[in-house]
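The records we work with from here on pair a chain with its fold. These numbers are not coordinates but entries in a learned vocabulary of local backbone shapes. To see the layout at work, look at the sequence and tokens printed below:
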Amino acid sequence: MRKHHRFSLLADCIAAAATAARMARSRLSRSLPLAAGASERHRTSAAMSESEERFARFMRHLPGLAWIKDLEGRYVFANETAQKVFRKSGDELYGKSDEEIFPASVAEQFKANDRRALAGDARIETVETLMHEDGVVHESLVRKFPIFGADGRAVLVGGIAIDVTDRLRAEEELKKSEARKAAMLATALDCIVTIDHHGRIVDFNPAAERTFGYRREDATGREMCELIIPAPLRDSHRRGMARYLATGEGRILNRRLELTAMRADGSEFPAELAITPITLDGPPMFTGYLRDITETKRAEQALQDSEAHFRLMADNAPAMLWVSDADARCTYLSTQWYEYTGSTPDEGLGFGWVECVHDDDRQNAQDAFLQANERRVPFNADYRMRTRNGEYRWIADAGLPRFDAQGELQGYVGCVVDVHDRKNYEQTLMEADRRKDEFLATLAHELRNPLAPVRNAVQLFRLKGPPEPQLQWARDVLDRQVDHLTRLIDDLLDVSRITRNNLELRKQSVALAEVIQGAVETSRPLIEQCGHELTVIVPPEPVYLQADPMRLAQVFSNLLSNAAKYTERDGHIWLTAALEGREIVVRVRDSGVGIPPETLPRLFELFFQADSSLERSHSGLGIGLSLARRLIELHGGSIEARSEGFGRGSEFIVRLANLAETPVPLPRESGGKTVRGATALCILVVDDNHDSADSMAALLRLTGNEVHTAYDSLEALQRAEKLRPDVALLDIGMPKMNGCEAARHLRRLPWGKNLLLIAVTGWGQEEDRRRTREAGFDAHLVKPVDHAALMRLLEDPRSAAISH
């Protein structure tokens, strides 16, 4: 405002000076008579020139532009600043109008404003634009005014201008800044209150209106502490302001503090406040930024309550609880942990807890937790920890990671449980399980040993020719029951292997038809004995799968045998195989007694008996179907049972997906051990069970072989040195020296390298086969020996790999 006022006074002075000069010149011209002397005229002319020179000097020192035009709009004067801005010299300007100098739009702007000044006989003030020599359009504040002659009429029009481009831009930026500030104040979530040095409110934003319940116009001008500060705190506020005004010191300025604020209705609430002094020209002002933290306080209280509840729960829980931070440092241990270990918080927190871990377990326990923390996954570890009396006990430590709303790891929360007694129980159970396995293996061995001579005797009857019908019936009964007992023993051992995850499949590319044929051949005697009709349907084209042929045949044979047992005499059994997409589906269906609906879900459980009464017609151990399911699952397949109920038969469906390409037959190698022929072999049979050894020897002699027996390993070594046999059949579990050690002795002999060594034993587990393989045996046959398999082995020693 002051600048505009000075500019107006300057314009008035220029107008007055120009008018006075014009009137003086006119009066002097009129007052001189024609007869006046030359000297008088000279003095008058000099005075006029001096006046004009003073006017010109005055104009040259003006800070802005100045010019004068006649009534036709022609320039009669322009100061140096105007000439520079117009980019014209005085000679180029004088006598010319705006149309001759400037673009039409600019000239019309100038002329219009000239006409306005002359029309009103008074000065006008406006803004005009003109491109300056720097190529930028500038805005100028222009004052235009008429210049009057001696007769009081306007004879000229004058103008002055100052460049206000920067000022206008600054004013525009200021307006924008003020608008932004107003928008920020209006939209700010926090209350913003500005007071003067008397404590009176000068600004009160919308957030403050909403929070305190006052309108801005009602709050402005009133003392702040009377409106929003509770009465007990007002004197403290006034003293603080007075201290600041007197000394410039304010303890609460420029920092955050929490206090109690008051609403218009008198209710109080917790608030967070920051006060900043504003020092400009004059007394200071203060701006306060205030936030209602009621919800924050509630959340903090809820968190404190939650932590208190957690600590109360943790300190009374039966387990030892712990909490860690994102750096894996323990930040909390429950009372139980300290009582259990006898440690203090200083000893347990951070990484101190590891000092309570047994030396042998410490590194593994710490590494397991650090790795889990790094990967942000659950943590589990069992280790031994020292108790307060110095004893080390097994504990189970488990923790889960904690994350915030952004997914950042906050640490872990976990618990520690004493599992020492459980560990001991587990060890006891493992020991009992190991003994059970040993018992089953020993039982199998002890049962197989007496079965071996029985089977050999049955085979002797068969090789002697067809006996009387009654004897033939007795032979067949013995043969079937030996087979049945052998399968029961094998199933028991298989279940034991599976429960210990110790059953290995020997997968190969095998034709489905061959597997089914093997299963049918195994089950056919029982099916024929029951008088059933068996229908087998397999795909016409060869279908191959990657499987263990013996185990898969065992499954299908088991299903066929069950169908035969649970179907009334002269029933019907169907075995169908089909390729459905990429799956092989084998169905075994019968016309038997069916399966009750309540029994179906438990049918594949180990040792489950559908009929547990003493009067049941079909006995069993309840392991066949459980074994079948586990074997199918090991092949990556599935098995299910279906039945429409009693008397409606049953159906078992096996699905396998391990399809294989058609195998390429490998050329048969001609190398390896050779024997003189199936009718001219020198065979040494070694077994401490005389019946087993003698019956096997008698059986082999019937096929034309020269057979000798020995009843322990030492005797066998002596006889072998004299006989140098082609084949030696050795039992493994013998007194004085076991069969494996005897095999090693034989292999060390010069002639023993080509000896066909066959282990014939009641021990049939995989570990037993591994031991005989390492001892140098070529084959491992389990008692009671399959006579056909033994004959194939004697005829072709290269098949020994199959039997091992």
